[in-house]
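User: Can you write out an input/output pair for a complex, sequences first and structure second?

Assistant: Here is one pair. Inputs:
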Amino acid sequence: MAILDNRLSQESYSSNFQDIHPPFENYTAAAVEANRCIFCYDAPCVKSCPTSIDVPKFIKQISTENIKGSAHTIFSSNIMGGGCSKVCPVEKLCEGACVYNLLEEEPIQIARLQRYSTDRAIQEKWPLFTRKPSSGKKVAVVGAGPAGLSCAHMLSREGVDVTIFEKEQKGGGLMTYGIAAYKVTPEFCQDEVDYILSLGGIDIRYGMTLGSDVHLHDLEENFDAVFLGIGVGLTRKLGIPGEDLIGVADAINFIYDIRTKPFEKIAVGNKVAVIGMGMTAIDAATQAKRLGAEEVTLVYRRTLDEMPCTEVELNIAKLDGCKIIWLASPKEITGVDGKVSSLLCDVMVLNSATPGERKSPEPTGQIIQLDVDMIIKATGQLPFEKLVDENEFLNTNGKILIDDQQETSIASIFAGGDCVNGGKEVVDAVQAGKDAAAGILNYLKIIPLPTEPLIINPLKL
Amino acid sequence: MADLSSYFLGIKSPNPFWLASAPPTDKKINVLRALEAGWGGVVWKTLGSQVKNVSSRYSSVNFNGGKVMGFSNIELISDRPLQINLDEIREVLRLFPDRAMIVSLMADNSRESWHELIKKVEDTGAHGLELNFGCPHGMTERGMGASVGQDPEIARMVVEWVMECATIPVITKLTPNVHSVVPTGKAVVEAGTNALSLINTIQSVTGIDLDTLVPNPNVAGKSVFGGYCGPAVKPIALKFLTTLGQDPTTKNVPISGIGGVNSWKDAVEFMLLGATNVQICTAVMTRGFRIIEDLCEGLNNWMDEKGFVKATDFIGKSLPTMINWEELDINYHIVANINQDKCIHCGLCYIACEDTAHQAINLLYGTPYNTYSINEPECVGCNLCSLVCPVDNCITMVEQRKGDEYLNWKEFQKRGLPLNDH
């Protein structure tokens, strides 16, 4: 039992980490799928997209070979529509709402069609948006993740001069650093960030961490408004004995390493337990397996009905050969010579909660032991509570409180994304960035001109 | 098992499906493959005037991801030597004596040319002749093809020449490039043609290459009007066919139906409107001769289900239902009904009605699914919602008569009954 790197051949690494989402091979293939779309009115897929992409419109634009128009439709609502088409849990969003589901037919492959248009736009660098002349207003954006980039892009389009402060060396946030490598490649993430920045008017400064390299009061002084899209931090502690043993890893760090280093440099155990059943837990478990771990077990204290990940995600883990133990709650980690040797779990049972409430697990008294040499914690990330408190933002357990203009308790400082919602999908962060940009434009008294034809629905008046 | 055998002017074929005069019947190798596959007969590609075909001859119209909804050609009549064609026809007749062999003809514009050609063709033992008065491209520039069919008096003259000489049945093929096929149809029937066939192709421009800006098909940077056919033209063909069945002169001769027959259902429709048999081309040009199997099986199964023993049991059966608008019953009223159990909430019925019809569908906003219901007093029963609904039998049109009695427009006016108030 050992935690080792360089377990596989280069061929195996590249095969294990190749794109899980094969693109349409050619236009004809995309057109066949696009033509399946029946062009619903007030479509459920649009209503199920946090950024309200006009899905029927962009799909019909593929069918008429108006690929530029299609990409513009997508990016108008979601400037990270390329990345979202690769990482969104579409089975519970747009595709999950597709009316074909009600016919017991496969839903339209919305994400795959979205990839078709956006990949071409990004690869061919289509200049689909133009920036208005500078208004002279300056806004600082902290964090070049989905929320920050989305906010910055919308502001710059309206002529605001934006400066982004990013602590990492690359933009994209969790898209670049926090998602399985077989979903989005580093090259794609870089291309997507470059494409967003190609609008102009956005100056991005890397290696700038809020609280050490850059301070909020300086930003307040030097900019007309500030947007905080700082995301969330590391995984919450399990609070059980043995958590500090060598071999206990944080899923966020584990995935960060995979996204920033060559695969052969990533050490992984022979027998790995992953704690949690969210998207990050799945990404950690599947990648541990793909890096060469012999046995990977996902441990979750509730059941299939309560798991945060989607069934599609769970199936990726199952197909990768990951084992799953339901109703098991970590109790203690034991070690030999300071290194992890086993994980003890309480066997749980779900109490019968009142209808509508989430059932809570309770220990049965029975205990199981898993012999493992590596444990990856993926039990949800914690907000940057200290930073939030130090700057005296009103907050709930570190999650920054905002009003309906996305403004924080401190005037001229706006916030959105994971640092506000505690950790949701990329697509939610993109929408939060848009909403905050709208709030900032309002605050700066800049009236955005509609870039889309104004559609009036008399029934909604 | 229904009897699919077909008699057209006494010419017997094992089924009512003939290949139309076109590229698939251009030469022995194709025709033999067709007859081996089971086709009832062929109309050999037009023989006659000397021509030379160009390269790049076809173009098509695609729709919603489907290929070749419409098809167009600028190919002229056969450009192979007449004697080779005649020898091959003779050979095919020897190999398949039980199949119909009709030869399409388009001679130069003189009595002698027609007589000479007919004699040579009859000498092969062919069962009948089809006069090509319909080709809408190329040949028209020489006063032939559609130029003949478009002028009833010229058509009458040519048919008279033909009938002076022909000893086997003569079918005259009509062009649809006219406001009505009846004047020419009447003229050629009066001149003695034994039967009619229709439609030939429709003069058209199928589309333009948006890179080169040259319409299709592109022949060295130029194009010409082509002859349009395929599934898109069936409704037009059925209309022309019906008018022949309604005219007292033309209804007395058999008609071979042509124009967008793609399936056994299309064939049945042609026959219900009076065609004795059908001719097919585009469907085999896009899928090959093997489609004859489903044509025969589908027709047979339908006839069995309906209790029709032979084709003549149903030929022309729908003709009496085609009447003048003024004779339609105004008291007949239908309203749409949405089956909520089947509805998939796509909203297509709503937006079609709201934007373009009668605002007769209610919308109740939901997340993510809206609910749609019919506002019956506003529904005029136009069928639009049921046509756009993607789910089978989800929207049905339910009869709610405005009155018990049959009431047509003339009577409605005579009684001074009220018109719509909004």
